[in-house]
Design goal:
Number of helices: 1
CATH architecture of the largest domain: Sandwich
CATH topology of the largest domain: Immunoglobulin-like
Order of helices and strands: HEEEEEEEEEE
Shape: elongated
Strand order of the largest sheet: 1-2-3-8-7
Number of strands: 10
Mean pLDDT: 80
Largest sheet: 5 strands, antiparallel
CATH class of the largest domain: Mainly Beta
Strand content: 35-45%
Radius of gyration: 29 Å
CATH superfamily of the largest domain: Immunoglobulins
Structural class: mainly beta
Low-confidence stretches: 44-58
Distance between the termini: 62 Å
Helix content: 10-25%
Length: 177
């Protein structure tokens, strides 16, 4: 007998589909139990750490890029972008902090007159902050930084210099309570 055997074939044609007694066999109960276990396993698979992953490959977001001084530097499109966050360590919960951005060219010179935007987002929660346009401040730029809650955040810094190529860098940080 195969899995697709009709109930009427179980006893030579005297059992009808309307008579559910064929479901009460031990083989039928075992199959129902196996199906239940498989469905439960499939449902629980969505509750693993992969469900909170940062990308489609299941990778978790990396730890904070910030050093002990809450500073990190990355390079893109010939520009070196340094993000400094205050307060240090960064806090979540909606209190406004500050993001300072220093932008240098390949020769190590400050890049004046660039358009700098900062966009905080919480990848695990699919939460995006709003783009903040940084204003010139000394040799760099400064913007308000609001992290709505404690947890892992990605701060994307987009720099459009007066001349040259647009640069986009992402910094990971963890906001505390």
């Amino acid at each position: 007998m195969t899995w697709r055997t009709a109930p009427a074939q179980l006893d030579g044609g005297t059992t009808s589909v309307a008579d559910p007694t064929w479901l009460r066999t031990t083989r039928g109960a075992g199959r129902r139990a196996a199906a239940t276990v498989l469905l439960a396993a499939a449902a629980l698979t969505g509750c693993t750490a992969t469900a909170n992953s940062d990308d489609a490959n299941g990778a978790s977001p990396p730890a904070s890029d910030l050093d002990a001084d809450c500073r990190a530097t990355k390079a893109d499109a010939g520009l070196e972008v340094t993000l400094t966050v205050s307060p240090c360590p960064p806090t979540g919960g909606g209190a406004a902090g500050t993001a300072q951005v220093a932008v240098k060219d390949a020769d190590g010179n400050a890049v004046p007159g660039a358009k700098v935007e900062i966009n905080p987002e919480m990848p695990n929660m699919k939460m995006k902050g709003g783009n903040q346009t940084a204003r010139p401040e000394g040799d760099g730029y400064e913007a308000k930084l609001v992290l709505g809650m404690p947890g892992d955040w990605r701060i994307t810094v987009t720099v459009v210099p007066v001349t040259g190529e647009k640069s986009t860098t992402a910094f990971n940080l963890t906001a505390k309570d």
